[in-house]
Design goal:
Blueprint lengths: L1 H12 L2 H17 L5 E6 L2 H6 L14 H5 L13 H10 L5 E5 L5 H6 L10 E5 L2 H12 L7 E4 L10 E5 L9 H7 L6 E7 L1 E2 L4 E6 L4 E8 H10 L2 E9 L17 E8 L4
Parallel strand pairs: 2-3, 2-5, 3-4, 5-6, 7-9
Antiparallel strand pairs: 1-8, 6-11, 8-9, 10-11
Amino acid sequence: MFRRAKVFLHQFEQIPFINHALDRHYAKEFASATNVNWFKGVYPDFASAIADAPASKPLGYNNEAPASAEMYRFRMQAISPCDYPVAFWLNRLLEPNQKLLDFGGHVGVLYYALTKYLTFPTPFEWQIYDVPAVIKEARKFAATNNKSAQLSFIDDLAEANENDWVLFSGSLQYVDEPVNSIIERLPYRPTYVLINMLPVHPRESYVTLQNISTAFCPYRIYGVGDLLEDIQKMNGEVIDEWKNADKECVIPYHPDHSLDHYYGMLVRLKPRH
């Protein structure tokens, strides 16, 4: 009976004028909600999502709200289930003298968590790229942490090291630029591109709007075809791929654009001739 009631409620919500009314009501809650990780709407591009963002909070992580730069500290204590593929491949393939660029790595959340599980080779450098407000906080945090010796920080990709790895861990969705374009902008071409916690739709690419509590962020959902095309453009070979079953993107009143898992892959870049 519960299942039938749930199906009936879902069908009721899809009636056009009912769906529109519910969506409008949700938009009001979305604009003021705190301590949430909510999504709203389906848009063709970043500009459309930004234009529809409420004025009640700033846009993106590069803002003066200290909480934006202090988020995710809890994830430093232990890795999540979705982090295990990253830990596996780094443990298996990372070699001494290699360097890794953590694109959108915040204050080094994943690095600090992984130090509890992996012994990084020596020497080795983990470089974090993020927006200036976050990098400022990252440097302050590293100055008080005795595990930060292998870390360095940049807020300009032109300053990136000659990295062997580029890691996108839950960050690629926040940039209005395809992955192949980001790789091409680097001063040096890496050997591996490690992507994790990426929202991927089986048919189409689109953008939604995320409320991260302290700000609103346009949030890209990759279509699987577009993602594979981008990998082909950077002359990449997919070595492994996986589902992040503990991640989901629920966009209320847009069931066809909601996701019940995220996606990850390890890509090896072939040399350019």
